[in-house]
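Kindly review this record before class:
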Amino acid sequence: MTFTQTSDPTIREHIKSWRNLDVDQQLGLFWFIYQEMGSSITPAAPYASTVSSEVAEGLFNQVERLSPEEQLQVQRDLINQTDNLISREYGSLSDTTKLLFWYRLAQGMDSHTIISIPANFQLYSDANNLLNRIKELSFEQQITLFRDYVSPMGAEPRAGAEI
């Protein structure tokens, strides 16, 4: 998928590189970004409303109640745009709320309520190079990158009562 909301060629290239990684490397990269920059991105969407925060928290709580294996599968399903209830709920969120949701997942990994990457996990060289390039972006570019990366994830909501 080549969807991005920004016309910034640097951001577009970073997103393309990120999406070219396998799903577990994408998740690992997210974790390393949170570890490196989490405190500066707190909370990752400076424009978030209370409603966005509550909606992100509600979806996070659904994922938190799942088994660790199911939590991991939800994250993979979101990236792979698998059509299931949580992916459709996610797909109906605003970009800011999606960003907050992923931030909450990273916090959950940090506090061990969400499955984390294995202790021996290593980023491939492509993912590690991308992490280093992301670190060089301005704060605003980082937020745009993260928003544009998480925005198209999930599945399209369905009409009617089935989200």
In short: The mean pLDDT is 87.
